[in-house]
Design goal:
This protein is α+β, with helices and mostly antiparallel strands. The chain folds into 3 domains: 11-77, Uridine Diphospho-n-acetylenolpyruvylglucosamine Reductase, domain 2 (2-Layer Sandwich), CATH 3.30.43.10; 85-193, Uridine Diphospho-n-acetylenolpyruvylglucosamine Reductase, domain 3 (2-Layer Sandwich), CATH 3.30.465.10; 213-308, Uridine Diphospho-n-acetylenolpyruvylglucosamine Reductase, domain 1, CATH 3.90.78. It is 25% helix and 26% strand. It has helices at residues 39-48, 100-109, 124-129, 139-142, 190-207, 239-245, 274-292, 308-312, and strands at residues 11-17, 29-35, 55-58, 64-66, 71-77, 85-88, 91-95, 112-113, 133-134, 137-138, 143-149, 155-159, 177-184, 186-187, 214-217, 252-253, 256-258, 265-268, 301-303. The strands form 6 sheets. It has a 5-stranded antiparallel β-sheet with strand order 6-7-13-11-12. Strands 1-2-5-3 form a 4-stranded mixed β-sheet, with no helix packed on it. The protein has a 4-stranded antiparallel β-sheet with strand order 15-18-17-16. β17 (256-258) and β18 form a beta hairpin. The model has no long low-confidence stretch (mean pLDDT 93).
């Protein structure tokens, strides 16, 4: 793609492979990868960028399949300068590139309970955009506001109620880049919070394939969703149970596999392509529907273009 791009102070790399930037280690190149120096650099770049050029904000690639054909346009990845964490009273301000686990630890050390973030893979920007949650708490429950650079370069501070949270989703506009977020947590004893997080980690490690190449939970749990974006789970349906009941624990396609340890985790068991992973996921959705009559919805984001080889399969 022949693009006429502004010249930023940060790093702008053409035809940058993205596989090494995702937890599943798959995917083709971005036309351009932009790593801004700071918020002003990002704002100026987007403001000067042709509005017809698509923009995709990428976190640490923990909940993402980049298809084998790569991503057209500009992929933005925040790094240093966007990962600070500050605590004032019961409020925690975190840069979008700060890891969720790091924010939880920093908050706990200061006596603020954001422990639900401790076992969520990824960074704060992705957690806000996807309304991440764990152990009964969601970003929507704790967020005060988010600072966002819009596609036209404008810097906006958006309050929690204006973000439009849904279950594992938000209504932030396409091309908007979250750069920071403010959370309000309850006060807690640092030692008690550390013990709470240690227990959460132990439970996660006992039930999830944390040492495998995964992208977290593959499919959302079916059920009703409240107006606050919380999963009601009115039928107590779990995606892993539906997959297991369909006999798909350990099910494979090429180098892709549904984990033996937790069947709602799609894994790159070795040499998988993005097409293998997405194709396996679609086959799982098909078989679960045939058996249960229920349609599993993807929780992992899939972006980019397929290749002719994948389309022919």
């Amino acid at each position: 793609m022949n693009l006429a791009l502004p010249t930023p102070r940060g790093t702008l790399t053409p035809n940058r492979p993205l596989a090494d930037l995702t937890w599943l280690r798959v995917g083709g190149p971005a036309d351009w990868l932009f790593q801004p120096a700071d918020v002003d650099d990002l704002s100026a770049f987007l403001g000067a960028l042709d509005p017809s050029i698509p923009v995709f904000a990428m976190g640490v690639g923990s909940n993402l399949i980049v298809r084998d054909g790569g991503i057209r346009g500009v992929v933005i990845r925040l790094g240093r300068g966007f990962n600070g964490v500050a605590v004032e009273g019961n409020r925690v301000t975190a840069g979008a590139a700060a890891l969720d686990a790091h924010v939880a630890r920093q908050a706990a050390a200061a006596g603020v309970d954001l422990s639900f973030l401790r076992t969520i893979p990824g960074s704060i920007g992705g957690a806000v955009r996807m309304n991440a949650g764990c152990y009964g708490a969601y970003v929507a429950d704790r967020l005060v506001e988010a600072t966002v650079v819009m596609r036209d370069g404008a810097l906006r501070v958006i309050g929690r109620d204006a973000i439009g949270f849904g279950y594992r989703s938000s209504s932030l506009p396409e091309g908007a880049v979250i750069v920071a977020a403010v959370f309000q947590g309850e006060a807690g004893d640092p030692e008690a919070l550390a013990a709470k997080m240690a227990d959460q980690l132990a439970r996660r490690d006992a039930t999830q394939p944390v040492r495998d190449r995964t992208a977290g939970s593959t499919f959302r749990n079916p059920g009703g969703f409240s107006s606050t974006g919380r999963a009601d789970d009115v039928h107590d349906l779990k995606a892993w149970k539906l997959i297991d009941d369909a006999g798909l624990r350990g099910f494979r396609r090429g180098g892709a596999m549904m984990s033996d340890k937790h069947p709602n985790f799609l894994t790159n068991a070795g040499g998988a392509s993005a097409a293998d992973l997405e194709g396996l996921g679609e086959e799982v959705r098909k078989r679960v529907f045939q058996i249960s009559g229920l349609t599993l919805e993807w929780e992992i984001m899939r972006v980019g273009e397929t290749t002719p080889e994948a389309d022919a399969q």
